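Fig. S4 source data, part A: sequence.
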Amino acid sequence: MTRPSPDAEAVLTVDHLTMRFGGLVAVGDLSFKARRGDITALIGPNGAGKTTVFNCITGFYKPTEGKLTLAHADGSKHLLERLPNHAVNRIGRVARTFQNIRLFQGMTVLENLLVAQHAPLMRASGMTVLGLLGLPVYRRAEAAAIERAKDWLGRIDLIDRADDPAGDLPYGAQRRLEIARAMCTEPVLLCLDEPAAGLNPRESGELNALLRHIRDAHDTSVLLIEHDMSVVMEISDHVVVLDYGVKIADGTPGEVRADPRVIAAYLGVEDEEVEAVEAEVGLTVTHLEVEA
């Protein structure tokens, strides 16, 4: 797949997003674009508002102000903030994973991927008991769902574990399964909340390879929250940095890594110390990469 140009169409446009909880402004006047075919990382210190942004994009919260526009490849556009919660995935084609793994631990690995495809199976059944009767239209939909699930199990090296309970998988494999489950919904935008959390270096490498595959081989753009700076710098095409709900940087990984405002935010210094941090940028960037 050809990499998008810098002026490629935005798959997601966030316009002046504000989210208030009473008197608390969790996100303030945030604007950015995620290009189609890119991996865009949303980073920042704890409490920066990253998960709140995800919750607005995926329908868990309705923004206090602002617009969230998702553009499909066919030219259609959807204002996510106007869609009912359940329609963000079905109509907007936005899928999400969470900080804490949310697999069905007692179901098999294969069944977890079939559950993700319940909507097309229900449509094929006519929302009735037709599926129980085994009519051809339902059998075809069921066969397609199983084929898609097995295809993804092959991609994440879990086809041999298809009949095992998901809860028996190692932690890193559960992370990959959760991403595969989201991909079974064929999303336009895949939102991943700290997918590398708790992974060892080998598992992080497997995750990076999977995300590159999703970016390069599918019509799916990736938006991720991540605290592991090695993952962010290695696989991201574009990075947006938040601090206290406000965007402080927006650019390539290299640009963001050298931005004194980003360094200051991660080190916890005050605004007046930014110039001093900038003067020591070479030393501090190394510290940021190791410690963030």
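Fig. S4 source data, part B ends here. The longest helix spans residues 136-155.
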